[in-house]
Amino acid sequence: SAMGLELYLDLMSQPCRAVYIFAKKNGIPFQLRTIELLKGQQYTDSFAQVNPLRKVPALKDGDFVLAESVAILLYLSRKYKAPDHWYPQDLQTRARVDEYLAWQHTGLRRSCLRALWHKVMFPVFLGEQIPPETLAATLAELDVNLQVLEDKFLQDKDFLVGPHISLADLVAITELMHPVSAGCKIFESRPKLAAWRQRVEAEVGESLFQEAHEVVLKAKDMPPLMDPALKEKLKLSVQCLLH
């Protein structure tokens, strides 16, 4: 039925995990519509009617359809009156959340996506070797962005915008689990970020955090994709994301 809230998600995707955790953590009732990107389900006509961009996450609330994870998180936090700390009323604290959400698209997001695809998904899943210098450049870029996350955003606070968890932390941690799932030891030499990660996971709750990351943490063990047509389609769409 068209009643109620439907979330179109693939938990392989970082922004989908943020939306999933946010909805579950805040007791927002929704119907989960899983769209498996690696099986090409985003290319179906039925999904194109929901989101012509053929991307997840997507939200359907009756006749209202919304794409883009940041817009979805803000819509959910407003509609369901989530606790203030997620997206604070205070003008400057809210501006700090906005600042992080604006930066992350081209900052951390791209690096984390690249790390997983260059290290695992291309070689293991698509059977395409990545030149060592490409992988090295990807990991170097990730390192630069982790430094920005630490020096500019986290600084000496408990969370990215202050003493409480916000949407910024949720979006950041779900991103960072991408390189973690690829075997990158991103927290080992960064005690400040490691401590922040533990605080964020504790706030989310361990079982919900694990549930949201179960799929991506198994990425390394995925069998190679055999369908040549789908392989080409995925390669093209991912290369658009990576450039």
TrEMBL record:
Cellular component terms per the entry's GO annotation: cytoplasm
One Gene Ontology biological process? glutathione metabolic process
Give the organism, scientific name: Elachura formosa (spotted wren-babbler)
- Signal peptide stretch: none
Q: Please list the reactions this protein catalyses.
A: RX + glutathione = an S-substituted glutathione + a halide anion + H(+)
Q: What is its EC number?
A: 2.5.1.18
User: Top enzyme class of this protein?
Assistant: transferase
Q: Where is the GST C-terminal domain?
A: 90-224
Question: Which InterPro entries does the record cross-reference, listed alphabetically?
Answer: Glutathione-S-Trfase_C-like (IPR010987), Glutathione-S-Trfase_C_sf (IPR036282), Glutathione_S-Trfase (IPR040079), Glutathione_S-Trfase_N (IPR004045), GST_C (IPR004046), GST_C_Theta (IPR040077), GST_N_Theta (IPR040075), GST_Theta (IPR051369)
Q: Name one Pfam family in it.
A: GST_C
Read off the Gene3D superfamilies from this record. Answer: 1.20.1050.10, Glutaredoxin
Subcellular compartments: Cytoplasm
Entry protein name: glutathione transferase
What the entry lists under SUPFAM superfamilies is as follows: GST C-terminal domain-like, Thioredoxin-like
Family membership: Belongs to the GST superfamily. Theta family.
Q: Where is the GST N-terminal domain?
A: 3-84
Query: Is Transferase among this UniProt entry's keywords?
Result: yes
Principal subcellular localisation of the protein: cytoplasm
**Any GO molecular function:** glutathione transferase activity
